[in-house]
Amino acid sequence: MSHAMLSSPILAALNSGVIVVDDEYNIQYLNAFIERHGNLQLAGVLGKSLFSVFADLPEAWLKRKLMSVLDLKTPAFSSWEQRQYIFKLPHLRPITSSSQYMAQNCTMLPLETGQHEQPLICILIEDATDAFVYQQHLSRTLIELEKANRQDGLTKVQNRRYWEEQLKQEIHRAQRYQHSLSLILFDLDKFKDLNDKYGHLGGDFVLVELSSFISSLLRDSDLFGRYGGEEFGIILPDTGLDGAEEVAERICRAVADYPMLFNQQTIRTTLSIGVAEFVPKQHFLHDDLIRCADMALYNAKRSGRNRVCCYQAGETDYHKKAN
Ligand SMILES: Nc1nc2c(ncn2[C@@H]2O[C@H](COP(=O)(O)OP(=O)(O)OP(=O)(O)O)[C@@H](O)[C@H]2O)c(=O)[nH]1
């Protein structure tokens, strides 16, 4: 293949990279695109090893690829999805991306040469940075959407739908592996009065503040969700009734002692908390566990609020809700 053909104006003007190497990986040609992005001149690298000119190439991998192109006389490919880039070339876009390097689709082609001429391989480098950045945005958006789908919009703890799904899964796990599992349900005391006194924004502020404060008191493995207006649930995997009661007592005391500053006013509130333990028996569903914790919660309301009540086995009905 003549050098004149390799340096045709079309190759020079191409908006993709072209590098030609021989069977010893020495550079026989590279076009203006590579000169520009790689900050080098063809004259300065002609005949030099590809691997000495481009430091950081995945040498063993690329040699294997190029060898197979020569041996099989068929093209080989590498897409940015498999390997973000082969040649460490900076991209020239004023865009924000997690990478400063050009994402690339590369094609390695065997070039037809005369029988007695040295075999050549052409490496085509297509700039795929736009696709890479678009894909990054898309993945980030999907992660955010997925998170939003699980979160309560106001308090950022799990929303009811997701939290109940978690409870079903944890019950399934506890059944299967005979693990203990407990549930805490709590409700803010006299929240209606708080709303009346500080306005709905004050009420919202308290829900957000307490959610964040209570989250900080829990283990990473505990699952905290908003069950309804001012009612929340915490699933405690691998925790029996005594352990759950201890956690509930700690939360109850910490919240009662937690002053919240809203519009230069200090707000204090308390919780009524019900605790129930999962009973590993057949047909015990997540609804049953919620019902047991709910009974205990209403007992806590009934017996004066700002306290923890545990569900006692055998209780079968709600005590009347306190006024
Ligand atoms: N600010 C605010 N208030 C809410 C929200 N969801 C529910 N509420 C209010 O919470 C109050 C709950 O009142 P009740 O069910 O009577 O209970 P309570 O006043 O807390 O009294 P006890 O539970 O018996 O201690 C209602 O006034 C609801 O409007 C919310 O997202 N933001």
From TrEMBL:
One Pfam assignment: GGDEF
Reactions this protein catalyses: 2 GTP = 3',3'-c-di-GMP + 2 diphosphate
CDD domains the UniProt entry points to: GGDEF
EC number: 2.7.7.65
Alphabetized InterPro entries for the sequence: Diguanylate_Cyclase, GGDEF_dom, Nucleotide_cyclase, PAS-like_dom_sf, Rev_trsase/Diguanyl_cyclase
Keywords: Nucleotidyltransferase, Transferase
EC supergroup of this enzyme: transferase
Residue stretches making up the GGDEF domain: 179-313
GO molecular function: diguanylate cyclase activity
Listed PANTHER family: DIGUANYLATE CYCLASE DGCM-RELATED (PTHR45138:SF9), REGULATORY COMPONENTS OF SENSORY TRANSDUCTION SYSTEM (PTHR45138)
Protein name: diguanylate cyclase
Species per Swiss-Prot/TrEMBL record: Rheinheimera tilapiae
